[in-house]
């Protein structure tokens, strides 16, 4: 298994994609033991390699024939380190939510691996998979639809214990739920209330409490604050940062709001049409972007400062994102890119440190999937 | 003045009680000017706009007081058929969710053409040509071929362009845009806002932009009205408000948004929740969430007082005199001025 994963290692392996140390677990209990083992802070806890998800497009009713595929995720690789927050940004349809579902094993990957503490979770089953699922939890976008309206808050937060009774023995559950309510800043006496009795921000706290119930190591947050009002957003973001310190969590924070992602993330990956366009630390991405898509994305964000509106250079992209069922050849961004040349149509740019920056001690030296990567500070340029 | 809303009151009578959605809103827009109405959900920003457009659901809604002067005449005194002539032709609205605002079973050409058939009495054939012209104007590629397509065949950004085209069809004097870009991605949002600003300049329209996004406001607005619990709590030209907010709520909002150009420390969060409109707190509606609240804030509703920027912190005259003065004269909106509905706006302004 170790041999196999090495050969699948992307050719452009760099600091963001470290070497995978696979664990060969012969029996299920060995696998579970490996999953329960602690990981040092800063060590990779989740390693995603060439993850692919294609949704088939079929034609015909009785004899379904596949006529194509929506390439929602097409070869994504990244690492998540213990205790860090990895932000993933991109426009709607870029595949960021599909990545979240794949990591949760809610969807089966078409190809690629997701190593959690050295074990490929896309190939696990039974007890081992259950143990992984306990350690990777999710907070959803819409607090209005992700909570069952017929269940009380106590039942919603306590439901994970039904599946994983080892975390909280039966007699202990109520106390545990009340503790969780307290942790997320809700009154523990609300345990018998229903979701409709809460505001949006409070509901999102309930969603977070449910995510925390099983003491997970990783929480995947899919647009956790985009349905909330501005003044409530800040409360929830602060809560999430506090919980991260308290419980030593690793976050994958998926959002389209670039300011919020910068605020919360240690590293940021920019996705476009199912692939990673650029990945690096928050300073590298926001202050020294080298991929034209990142630059356009950043320059399009309205900045709450009217003084800068005349002076700011804005890159306004033309057209829409192409269909992921039929992505452009070569570089996926070339149809909207102002730098595009013939080479971009023929050759897929690899996600790697651009040649001109290799070995240089500059923040621009981070992975960017562009043939003509060039540093351009669009955020501070006024 | 193109549009003047004066002391507007709207309430909703429901089974559970009376929800006071708008409690004395006064604002104005001139031709070619952009007024941004900023507020959270439930602040009454959309209800005010719906009252102006005359598309409020009545009942349960009821306008209990105030005037809406449009080009000098009070819209609230017009008969429904006269109102219909104004709506669409003189003022138009762009809604947030283009997919649910467009009719899914009619082609976009039919929907755009309807404006000309109903208001201008054109034939269907001429109306279709006009529709193509409009789609070209909002830069929808291949307008001629796409005029016969249905809304679901367009992307989100293109649908919002069709909404804009529909609002612009009869070249109205005033456009109300209710969260026009909230459902769009940032790159598309930039395209749509640019288009809207350009068309506004070209036609010299008044624009009321309703939003909760402080970034969008900073990019396009001339003046801002911040709403909270159905009242305007601060009104100012755009540059002043971002430089130094004069109301604790505005200040809180500005401080609670993370920045793109630097990594900040912990975010400032306004504590608590927006009030229930059926039980608005007495005194200043913001007092339970305000870091500056004193006893007076819990008993007395602060008037929308004129804000004057003084020379230095030492020269501030005592406050009660100025306050009494502003209470005598009802709040007016002369366009350029700056007002704040806070008992302690001077202190807030000085802190900023």
UniProtKB/TrEMBL annotation, chain A:
GO biological process: one example: transmembrane transport
This protein's record includes keyword Glycoprotein: no
GO molecular function: ATP binding; ATP hydrolysis activity
Family matches, as InterPro entries: AAA+_ATPase, ABC_transp_ATP-bind, ABC_transporter-like_ATP-bd, ABC_transporter-like_CS, Oligopep_ABC_C, P-loop_NTPase
All copies of domain ABC transporter, residue ranges: 46-298
Chain residue ranges for the region called Disordered: 1-23
PROSITE patterns, per the entry: ABC_TRANSPORTER_1, ABC_TRANSPORTER_2
Any Pfam family hit: oligo_HPY
Domain of life according to the entry: Bacteria
Keywords carried by this UniProt record: ATP-binding, Nucleotide-binding, Transport
Transferase is among the record's keywords: no
Signal peptide annotation: none
Family per record: Belongs to the ABC transporter superfamily.
Protein name stated in the entry: Oligopeptide transport system ATP-binding protein
Species of the source: Streptomyces indicus
UniProtKB/TrEMBL annotation, chain B:
UniProt-listed GO biological process terms: peptide transport
Domain ABC transporter: residue ranges: 5-254
Stored InterPro entries: AAA+_ATPase, ABC_Ni/Peptide_Import, ABC_transporter-like_ATP-bd, ABC_transporter-like_CS, Oligopep_ABC_C, P-loop_NTPase
Topological type in the membrane: Peripheral membrane protein
Record's subcellular location: Cell membrane
Region (Disordered): 308-339
SUPFAM superfamilies cross-referenced by the UniProt entry: P-loop containing nucleoside triphosphate hydrolases
Keyword terms of this UniProt record: ATP-binding, Cell inner membrane, Cell membrane, Membrane, Nucleotide-binding, Translocase, Transport
Predominant place of localization: membrane
Gene3D superfamilies assigned to the protein according to its UniProt record, in alphabetical order: P-loop containing nucleotide triphosphate hydrolases (3.40.50.300)
GO cellular component, one term: plasma membrane
GO MF annotations, alphabetized: ATP binding; ATP hydrolysis activity
Origin superkingdom: Bacteria
Family (UniProt): Belongs to the ABC transporter superfamily.
PANTHER family recorded: ATPASE AAA-TYPE CORE DOMAIN-CONTAINING PROTEIN, OLIGOPEPTIDE TRANSPORT ATP-BINDING PROTEIN APPD
UniProt protein name: Oligopeptide transport system ATP-binding protein
Species of the source: Streptomyces indicus
